[in-house]
Specification:
The complex is a heterotrimer of chains A (about 350), B (about 500) and C (about 140). Chain A has about 350 residues and is α/β, with parallel strands linked by helices. In chain A, about 40% of the residues lie in helices and about 20% in strands. In chain C, strand 1 and strand 2 form a beta hairpin. Classes of the chains: A alpha/beta (about 350), B mainly alpha (about 500), C mainly alpha (about 140). Chain B: Pfam families: TctA (PF01970).
């Protein structure tokens, strides 16, 4: 049945396109408009969801796609995910109307980028209405080549201690999730082992996941930031030696189901005396002055979706998990999280001193 | 049949539809293969994996091939990778050989397509490990090698051409450098709009389409000379496979270059046809005729940009790394279905792998059939009065520019700014093709230059001491430059003597 | 950034300036070379007066040219102001009639049908069917 539907829709698209030259085309008269006052529908009949990533292969797009695909049914509207990239998404949001016809979907980089100075102050959390939390990518991890002489992040530091002539260089991206988790590792090492060890940690600052992988294969970096979803393929048996990788640790509180990767906490990595935990979470950002009823409708729809097993399954396929929080809870949570991270960012090393 | 155990007639049907829509999207200036795939990506969610791939591969092949239609008939590259198709394609149209040019183009396309899919099928895993051996130094040198074409296509003034190319690189650097998120070369007040710099597509169609329309407006929209030609009576417009006689090496070399450049992760698709065209010019028996409407140049550009497709799929399917921006979106299709593409993809999904290869065969055949039989109609575009076709082109360019980054109004302004520049440039001696090639390759050149230095800690000798690949590339670069210089001296002498 | 013999001091804070500096250098060198070349050419044919530089071609169509520019510049704001369909239909009508060059029954009909057909087709196919975000 689904096949038939797809065929019909693709077919009609093709036909319409062909008819393009001759022009005129009949409407289908299926104008939908939201029922006013109801708590699970919203007014705009088209909600443009701009996301903070310009890639359609990344976790932001994947989770946004799964969420909006389901939400649009509940909200009785049409949601379109536009992968415009972080800066453009923020700038579109600044100019957007308050009716919720343009909303944003992003992850922790939304505030980390402001804290690290990569995004303008105008984009800080206070200037938006924080919407519901949607999902987590628990696979936030570090990796190295399969034949590296250490198996965890903590061991990499011990290895540096045992081999005073060696250095370790870590590939990461500035201003985002990978920098904050690197900072956690670095600050811990500095506190526990002192600067004679951390002086031998270098960074290789680059962009996308592909660039980081390539840096590992080129020998430009010894350790790279990655994720279970994106990098697991390279760690499995049967992968050729020159591209094979292994995980050195994940930053979640608990181990990720089905993967034998020690967490940072297990390895004893602490910052300010507390276990270092960082989960990459995805949430909606709405215009500051959006109507209460819109947020409520989105909250209600999200709550319904969080119970949906199909949705959970869609996320699990790529090792993401459902992480539902209504908007007020999400706001409180993110503000607190940001405060914790602020203290790390304040103590964090300047990349300028670490880049080789 | 074994093939039909993996793909169903439904897959074939979707693939044909994909090709059909792709051709039209590719043929509309302002719409690209990448955009076509991005539009249909969410729709594939309800499809089976193989069917979804059939549709998307169809769109990819159709989109890349469709670009040759406006390139040849209107001198507007429908997609960035058909830039070099305009060099010889449009002059052929001006000579009244538009229909022939289209047929040469699609024949070259299908040859390039089949060449690359054969390479993909037979050597994918082996080539993948070759591809990751290319370090940032090698990639930088390949970009430089592609840039040497600027020297060989410079018309009239070698220094003028080089200046135009470097100016293009300069403009491409405006924006924020991704590694350290620092802005540079920013005109004051435009920081927000230009964070990512000027987008390629609006720049491309601005320079070609809008610039051309302004120029025509200046001249009062008079019918072009070739619009008055009666095509039926011109013998020259006949297409036959004889045109390919003597072009075997050219076709093979260009397909190979296309596949190879496509295979390198992070080296953009447009570089494929640029590099191939430049080599065709270097090896040609009469390089001075290239750019004046020689099928030779057309064959080179079109076989290379279809060669690119199979090439770009190699790192995608064997390493999980996209070879160009279009395959980067294709990854999304696999993830939607929960299929991981990575080093184990082929061995753990043998059926899907065969399905992809068969789909590519089907898509190339579909492309050829659909294009071949619709050429008669396409070719008539040339005869539509300018006062009707130009407004439509402007409309499509505006819509396409707005849509390329999913709805950014500044991209429409970019289109108009570069439209005006496209009108002014030829008048003040800036050469548009050279400028564009610089613009297309500028950011990649910078990325790999800086990456190389990051790796070496600032040691410049790294560009010469990185092993055999780099040395071969240096020889090619120098050869290409020396050749371009000799060629330019020769043509100067020719001009002086006539 | 200092360049010692074959080494460059690169620092993370200045990654973004390394390449632009090289390119600006190359641009200046090429510009100087261009000027020298032009200068030598001028000296060589001293006796002949150089042709004065003309920006516009002879008998250029001022009306069509400037009207095109004005219409192009007004189109994007009109899109934001009136929405896609009204702005595009109006723009398409004006530019078609401008290029047709005459104002009579036939050209008006052609312009109206061209503007309606293409605007509506684009709006329907791309905006509705493909769900692309339109201006």
């Amino acid at each position: 049945m689904k096949k038939m539907m797809a065929l019909v829709s693709v077919g009609s698209m093709g036909f319409m396109l062909a008819a393009c030259g001759t022009g005129d085309s009949g409407g289908q008269g299926e104008q939908t408009s939201g029922q006013e006052g109801s708590s699970t529908t919203i007014d705009p009949n088209r909600v443009r969801t701009v996301i903070g990533s310009s890639s359609t292969g990344g976790d932001t797009y994947q989770t946004a796609d799964a969420a909006t695909r389901n939400l649009e049914e509940v909200l009785d509207t049409n949601m379109q995910v536009d992968a415009v990239g972080a800066d453009r998404a923020f700038s579109e949001m600044s100019g957007a109307q308050d009716d919720g016809s343009t909303i944003m979907y992003f992850h922790d980089m939304a505030y980390l980028g402001v804290e690290y100075g990569s995004f303008s102050e105008d984009y800080e959390l206070e200037n938006w209405t924080i919407g519901p939390m949607v999902a987590t990518n628990p696979g936030n991890a570090f990796l190295t080549s399969a034949d590296a002489p250490y198996d965890t992040m903590a061991e990499s530091i011990e290895w540096l201690e045992d081999n005073p002539d060696e250095t370790v260089s870590v590939a990461l991206e500035e201003g985002g999730v990978s920098e904050i988790v690197f900072d956690g590792y670095y600050l811990w090492a500095e506190e526990e082992y002192g600067s004679e060890i951390t002086d031998r940690i270098e960074v290789y600052v680059t962009g996308s996941q592909e660039d980081k992988n390539q840096a590992l294969w080129d020998g430009n970096a010894d350790i790279i930031h990655g994720s279970i979803g994106a990098n697991n393929e390279y760690t499995e048996d049967g992968v050729e030696d020159d591209i094979k990788m292994k995980f050195l640790g994940v930053t979640t509180e608990e181990r990720v189901d089905g993967f034998d990767i020690p967490t940072f906490a297990e390895q004893g990595i602490t910052v300010d005396g507390e276990e270092f935990v960082f989960e990459k979470e995805f949430f909606f950002l709405l215009p500051k002055d959006i109507d209460e009823s819109y947020t409520t409708a989105l909250d209600n729809a999200m709550a319904e979706l969080a119970e949906d097993e199909e949705f959970a399954e869609a996320l699990n396929k790529n090792t993401y998990t459902v992480n539902h929080m209504p908007s007020d809870e999400a706001e409180e949570h993110l503000m607190e999280k940001r405060e914790n991270m602020q203290s790390i960012i304040e103590q964090a090393p300047d990349l300028n001193d670490l880049a080789k | 049949m074994l093939a039909f155990e993996i793909i169903t007639p439904f897959t074939v049907l979707l693939c044909f539809l994909g090709v059909f829509i792709g051709i039209i999207m590719g043929a509309i200036p302002g719409m690209t293969a990448t955009m076509a795939i991005a539009i249909f990506l969410p729709l594939t969610y309800v499809l089976e994996m193989v069917d979804s791939i059939g549709l998307l591969i169809g769109l990819y092949v159709g989109g890349i091939s469709g670009g040759l239609v406006p390139a040849i008939l209107l001198n507007i590259p429908g997609t960035p990778s058909s830039l070099c198709t305009t060099f010889d394609g449009y002059p052929m149209t001006q000579k009244g050989e538009g229909e022939k040019a289209l047929k040469v183009g699609i024949t070259a396309s299908i040859i390039g397509g089949f060449f690359s899919l054969t390479v993909l099928y037979l050597f994918a895993p082996f080539l993948a490990s070759v591809a990751i051996d290319f370090t940032s130094v090698d990639k930088f040198l390949i970009i430089v090698f592609a840039l040497t074409i600027i020297a060989s296509i410079s018309k009239g003034s070698l220094i003028g051409g080089l200046f135009s190319g470097v100016l293009g690189i300069f403009i491409s650097l405006i924006g924020r450098f991704p590694d350290n998120n620092e802005m540079r070369l920013m005109p004051p007040g435009l920081e927000e709009q230009l964070v990512y710099g000027f987008s390629l597509l609006p720049v491309l169609i601005g320079l070609f389409a809008v610039g051309q329309i302004l120029q025509e407006a200046e001249e009062g929209m008079k019918p072009a000379s070739h619009q008055k030609l009666d095509l039926k009576k011109t013998e020259k417009n006949k297409f036959s496979l004889k045109i390919f006689k003597g072009q075997y090496i050219n076709t093979a070399r260009s397909s190979l270059i296309g596949t190879f450049v496509g295979m390198l992760p992070g080296v953009g698709g447009s570089a494929a046809s640029i590099t191939a065209y430049s080599q065709t010019k270097n090896f040609s028996k009469h390089p001075e005729r290239l750019g004046t409407g020689e099928p030779e140049g057309l064959i080179s550009s079109e076989s290379a940009n279809n060669g690119l497709i199979g090439g770009a799929l190699i790192p995608l399917l064997t390493l999980g790394i996209p070879g160009d921006s279009t395959t980067a979106i294709l990854i999304g299709a696999f993830l939607l279905q929960g299929v991981q593409v990575g080093p184990l993809f082929i061995s753990s999904n043998p059926d899907l792998w065969s399905g992809i290869v068969i789909t590519l065969v089907v898509a190339n055949i579909a492309m050829f059939i659909l294009m071949f039989f619709s050429i008669k109609y396409f070719a008539k575009i040339v005869f539509i009065p300018k006062y009707i076709i130009f407004p439509i082109i402007v409309l499509m360019c505006v819509v396409g520019s707005y849509a390329i980054n999913s709805g950014i109004m500044f991209d429409v302004w970019t289109l108009l700014i570069f439209g005006v520049l496209g009108y002014i440039f030829p008048k003040i001696g800036v050469q548009i093709p050279a400028f564009l090639i610089g613009f297309i390759l500028g950011m990649e050149a910078e990325k790999y230059f800086v990456d190389s230095l990051k790796g070496s800690g600032g040691d410049l000798t790294v560009f010469f001491t990185q092993g055999p690949i780099a040395i071969v590339l240096w020889i090619l670069i120098l050869g290409s430059l020396v050749y371009a210089f000799i060629d330019s001296q020769k043509s100067k002498k020719n001009q002086a003597s006539t | 950034m200092t360049i010692a013999f074959f080494t460059m001091d690169i620092s993370f804070n200045e990654y973004h300036l390394i390449f632009p500096r090289i390119i600006i250098g190359a641009l200046i060198i090429l510009a100087v070379a261009l000027l020298l070349q032009k200068g030598i050419q001028l000296l060589k044919r001293k006796e002949k007066r150089p042709k004065p530089f003309r920006f516009f071609s002879e008998n250029y169509d001022a009306k069509k040219f400037y009207a095109t520019l004005v219409l192009l510049v007004l189109y994007p704001p009109a899109l934001s102001l009136f929405g896609f369909l009204p702005a595009s239909i109006l723009f398409m009508f004006l530019i078609t009639i401008l290029y047709a060059g005459q104002f009579n029954k036939k050209t008006i009909i052609v312009s109206i049908s061209n503007s309606l057909a293409s605007s509506i087709a684009v709006w329907y196919v791309f905006g509705q069917l493909f769900d692309i975000t339109l201006p």
